[in-house]
Design a protein that fits this description.
This protein is mainly α and about 425 residues long. It is built from 14 helices and no strands. Helices cover about 75% and strands about 0% of the residues.
Amino acid sequence: MNLRLVVENFMKYGVLICIGCHDYRQQDILLGAFLYALVPCHLFVAYIIELGAAQHAKGVLGRLKRSDSAPTDDPFRVSRSFQATWYTIAWAHGINATFCLLVTTYTVYHHIHHPLIGTISQIHAIIVWLKSCSYAFTNRDLRHAYLFPQTPSTIPDTYSRCPYPLNVTVRNLAYFWWAPTLVYQPVYPRSPSSIRWLFVGKRSAEAFGLGMFIWLASAQYAAPVLRNSLDKLQTLAVASILERVMKLSTISLVIWLAGFFAVFQSALNALAEVMRFADRQFYTDWWNSPSVGAYWRTWNKPVYHFMRRHIYSPLVGRGFSGHFASAMVFLFSGFLHELMVGVPTHNILGVAFLGMVVQLPMIYVTAPLEKMQGLNGRVLGNCIFWISFCLVGQPLAALLYFFAWQGKYGSVSRAKA
């Protein structure tokens, strides 16, 4: 946005920023706080489940040692016991984690009106749900290596600093809850130095300042464009809708970039410093992506590592093709995106879900460009990525969800007196 557009916006709309106009209902705030406080309860249940599984594993190993037989002497009996125990543990973890997500989703959709509070609550519940799944899957692998020590294992050597079942503690799980990662490990690389509180203050100030900028930009620039698009959507004026989408793409890109920097560069680095979490590669140069697939592998490393570790790699390891595994990843991701967008806006449109599914053909189309010799293919792939990123994805989705919200509620803000 250049200065002329800023001046033109103020001349046309005046000052649209109004702190007291937002409809932050007391019920929304109280329910949001309740949902946040509910999360530790479910994490404690996950700890109890794993504690029972660890006690069972120690009992099995102890009985085998007392009978002077190694686990591999009767592999079928021990394997059947392990599988039966895992099914029980998996069901217990699934019920606990999914119940937490369902309670949050139901509460946000039916009882939390403001979309910002609902989005924060929903994202937190999804993060904890993913962490609970990773906690269960990783401990399953550790338990298998514990019961079958002579079987070839892919458990990293660094895990020996906190071997199973010594990792099943409240402190270990609490660290994982706050650590800026979605993949559970008994041990993480830690920063050798003490916490740099000045660094934490700078990153926190960046996140706060960018949050204020996003709020100002949304209220002053995005909201008028969205409101002026409603009549075009009602009459299905295709040319006017395309013009609105292109106009919205500029401010939506600015807001998205500010949000990306606030979360992945500022907030996660501040959190990592407080937790002394050493692995701080939360993203790489996604803006130079030579294909759509490269973008999804680089812009959000925590989610990418989770999807690869717990969905893609297990499917490929079981004999499924890479294309099928990728399709499952994006179907699952589409489901999560719809939960994050459709539930807080109280409109399950399926647009966020379809937006993720549509990425698959775009990935297949641009993948050969990434592998072409020279720069032409990579530049073309990068151009396709940016065009789809700026024009097709975010502005169109924002327009449709805003239209659905306005049709249902009118506005999230009360009009100024």
